Amino acid sequence: MLNALRRFISDMATPDPPPRSDDERLAAAALLVHIMNVDGVVSREECRKLSELVKDRFLLDKEEADKLIDAATVADRDAVDLYGFTSVLKAKLDDAGRGRVIEMMWELVYADGEVHEFEENVVWRVAELLGVPARDRVRMKQLARGRVGN
Questions:
Q1: Is residue 63, in this structure, part of any structural domain at all?
Q2: Closest by alpha carbon to 69, among 87, 84, 51?
Q3: Distance (Å, rounded) from C-alpha 137 to C-alpha 98?
Q4: 85: domain CATH number?
Q5: Could you list the pLDDT tens digit for every one of the 150 residues in the chain?
Q6: Angle 24-37/44-58 helices, nearest 10 degrees?
Q7: Is residue 47 part of a domain?
């Protein structure tokens, strides 16, 4: 009984380890954070959509999603380019998984109802780095636009 109590206290005092830099969830979330910030305006709709995407796509609860988003924000801030994130995704995900990352990016781009040229450019560059064909990228853009009615 005493050992169980010690373990419980130890678990409570020890913070969760941060996501590893080769974690595909962290890499994808960092790209989402980047696309949300690239136009210089972060809307409430974008924040809500980011949280929704991370929770739904990675099957996380709110607390886990918030921790991942916090880690992704730090990773994006510290990154010198997008290659670090896309190389992890390219190594860890199949074609369909890489396509889902582009879908998530388009959904976030359209969350506020406006598409900025910087956002489009980042999605295009990431799709190229991930090997997602242009026709698929355009199709995903049209689907995301159709969901928001633009």
A1: yes
A2: 51
A3: 11
A4: 1.10.3680.10
A5: 545 445 545 454 444 444 445 699 999 999 999 999 999 999 999 999 999 999 999 999 999 999 999 999 999 999 999 999 999 999 999 999 999 999 999 999 999 988 999 999 999 999 999 999 999 999 999 998 888 765
A6: 170
A7: yes
Q: Return all residues near 130 (Cβ < 8 A) that are at least 6 apart.
A: 86, 89, 90, 98, 101, 102
| Residue 70 DSSP class | H
Q: What is the C-alpha end-to-end distance of the chain, expressed in Å?
A: 60
Q: Is residue 1, in this structure, part of any structural domain at all?
A: no
In a domain, residue 3? The reply is no
56: Cβ–Cβ under 8 A, 6 or more apart, which residues?
A: none
Burial class (CB in 10 A: 0-12, 13-18, 19+), 46: buried
